[in-house]
Design goal:
This protein is of the alpha/beta class. It has 19 helices and 18 strands. The protein folds into two domains: 264 residues, Rossmann fold; 214 residues, Rossmann fold. Helices cover 35% and strands 17% of the residues. The structure holds adenosine-5'-diphosphate. The site of adenosine-5'-diphosphate (ADP) has 19 residues, from helix 4, strand 13, strand 14, helix 14 and helix 15. One of its GO terms (molecular function) is alpha-1,4-glucan glucosyltransferase (UDP-glucose donor) activity.
Length: 588
């Protein structure tokens, strides 16, 4: 495995998707229990005093192995004993009286196969429903990049054949547990899902997901599994509702009803009729306006299908991930007419976060744990990052993080502007991101080369779940300057970790972040909001946040405590999904 040595003189931190950690170096010197004990026994009032005196903080926190940029293994690549981040499952959740069986069919699941928020949502919603007494399984492709040791009780469940392009492909179904959630992993004996990453392998992605959608139904059919709900996500599993209603429910599956969640309308699963044929459907039958045709291609040669549109038409219920995004999607974009036609079954349910996975009080990846009543561990996390990345750690300097896929949607020009603005205005910034587009990746590499030598900015072009926890914990502010954002999780995770959000007012960001200076609803105030997509609008919000941080330290401490106590958990919103499930379930 590649070992990344980080030094100030080799400033561009680059890596592919982090995989197993080959080295076992504990982040703190003692075991988790010892460490918690040591932290709990520490005199926090003296730590409070020490907050602005880093040398003293260092002396007090004797059990922290402070990292350095010259470490042979960077701190975020050290081995953790588990990726099952948190064994502390809440036990006092009231059970629902009429349990359902839900099977999610998805391309992502956190943390084993996560690229963005889709993975988080599937895991968080599944856990919330399990805790309420429902039976939940998650079906996903057995990507070659999934680390087998991240799956507990992994075992071969069945071997069967599933149709694709004139052949029956031998397929293995494995069962296991990921963070206590039952999974069924589908592994075809062909080239699909092979490669180093979840997406971007050297196979045809659309065809692989067409295969996967059918293989999940085929597995249910051969094993006689009839859940109440099959919950599909995004275009990748958009063929499943078509396959279910036009094929499998004429075979032996009758009971399931289908829910589709649209996490992002940008990707709509463009599909040629011949490609749809490959999963056994007659593609020409779907090329009509009331089925799956991509309206924009009508009259073109050839016309195209959209798997997402087909799924909107064929699912019993359609959900998108925030009320504001629901309104936005009804007003703009070519899918608006399909959504308006299906308005009765279209719901906007705000995503939650999985507070078991995202818990600063117990997550294993942090050098110090903390909670809303005592945030001293957060100061340790901040200095840990600063030292480990070679940032200055003297004085009271606001540290902003931006953890994001580096794609146009996320406001790339604004992220770049923030880097230079923060550097010039007495702050620090860490960007953690990966760009699927090589041109964007190169631009950010150039920026990393320019800035990573200094003491204020770090641009880390990689994916690392562990590092993301450390960044949310060590930051004072988390920046999400998206051009559009269906829901956004980074602002909610940031708040849970006591990092104050700075966001553009769009989609789910508008539903979850309310400006500190908005006098009309001071009780809701929890961050800094700007509206324009121009650089000046962002600068204004950053300047206001820095002013609060530097000039109003008591108000700042209060807002940190306040955002940590906001309940953005799935426990709050899962009931809305369960209402949707119950509204369409049938009893046999
Ligand atoms: P999207 O789904 O559009 O990517 P969300 O805000 O809904 O955006 O979810 C993003 C999720 O992916 C968050 O959990 C965020 O922490 C995580 N994430 C994004 N980029 C990275 C990265 N480079 N390394 C680790 N986690 C990342």
């Amino acid at each position: 495995m590649e070992v990344m040595s980080v030094s100030v003189s080799s400033p561009v931190f680059r890596a592919s998707h982090t995989k197993a950690f080959d080295y076992c170096v504990p982040i703190r010197k003692k075991t988790v229990i010892d460490r918690k004990f040591v932290f709990n026994c520490m005199n926090y009032s003296s730590l409070e005093v020490a907050a602005d005196k880093p040398e003293l903080l260092t002396n007090l926190v004797k059990d922290v192995d402070w990292p350095s940029p010259t470490d042979e293994i960077p701190f975020w690549k050290r081995k953790f004993h588990t990726r099952d981040v948190n064994p502390e499952i809440p036990v006092n959740i009231e059970k629902d009286s009429d349990p359902l069986h839900v099977i999610h069919v998805t391309a992502e699941m956190a943390p084993i196969a996560k690229v963005g928020g889709l993975g988080d949502v599937v895991t968080g919603l599944a856990r919330a429903c399990l805790l309420r007494g429902h039976k939940v399984d998650i079906m996903l492709p057995f990507y070659e990049c999934i680390q087998k040791d991240d799956i507990q009780e992994l075992s071969l469940l069945s071997t069967y054949s599933s149709y694709f392009d004139g052949n029956w492909i031998q397929t293995n179904a494995y069962s296991g547990l990921v963070s206590d959630i039952p999974v069924i992993l589908i592994e075809p004996m062909n080239q699909f899902f092979k490669g180093e990453d979840v997406y971007g392998g050297s196979y045809n992605e659309l065809e692989a997901y067409l295969f996967f959608s059918r293989a999940c139904l085929e597995w249910m059919q051969v094993t006689g599994t009839q859940p109440d709900i099959i919950h599909v996500h995004e275009w990748q599993t958009g063929a499943l509702p078509l396959l279910y209603w036009d094929m499998y429910c004429h075979l032996s599956l009758h009971k399931p009803r289908i829910v589709l969640t649209i996490h992002n309308m940008e990707h709509y699963g463009e599909c040629r009729q011949e490609q749809l044929n490959k999963c056994g459907l007659d593609g020409s039958l779907y090329a009509t306006i009331d089925k799956a045709i991509d309206d924009r291609t009508i009259g073109h040669n050839p016309e195209r299908l959209s798997l997402l549109k087909g799924a909107i038409v064929y699912s019993n219920s359609v959900v998108t991930v925030s009320p504001t995004y629901l309104q936005e999607t009804l007003c703009s974009g070519w899918l608006a007419s399909a959504l308006i036609t299906n308005r009765d079954k279209y719901h906007g349910i705000l995503n939650g976060i999985d507070t078991v996975m995202w818990n600063p009080a117990s997550v294993a990846f942090l050098p110090a744990n903390y909670h809303a009543q005592n945030t001293d561990g957060k100061k340790v996390c901040k200095q840990y990052l600063q030292r480990g990345l070679g940032l200055a750690f003297e004085g009271r300097v606001p540290l902003v993080v931006c953890i994001s896929r580096l794609v146009a949607q996320k406001g790339l020009h604004l992220i770049k502007h923030a880097i230079s603005h923060i550097g010039k205005h007495g702050g620090q910034m860490i960007v953690l991101g990966k760009a699927p587009d090589g041109r964007v990746q190169s631009e950010f590499e150039a920026l990393a080369n320019l800035h990573n030598k200094g003491s204020t900015i770090r641009i880390l072009l990689m994916y690392s779940e562990e590092l993301s926890h450390m960044l949310y914990a060590g930051a004072d502010m988390v920046l999400i300057p998206s051009i559009y954002e269906p829901c956004g999780l980074a602002q909610m995770i940031g708040m849970r970790y006591g990092s104050v959000p700075i966001v553009r007012k769009t989609g789910g960001l508008a539903d979850t972040v309310f400006d500190m200076d908005d006098q009309s609803q001071p009780e809701m105030a929890n961050g800094f909001v700007f509206e324009g997509t121009d650089e000046a609008s962002l600068s204004g919000a950053l300047d206001r946040a820095f002013f609060y941080y530097k000039e109003k330290p008591i108000e700042w401490a209060n807002i940190v405590q306040k955002v940590m106590q906001i309940d953005n958990s799935w426990n709050k919103t899962a009931s809305k999904y369960i209402d949707v499930y119950n509204s369409i379930r049938v009893r046999w």
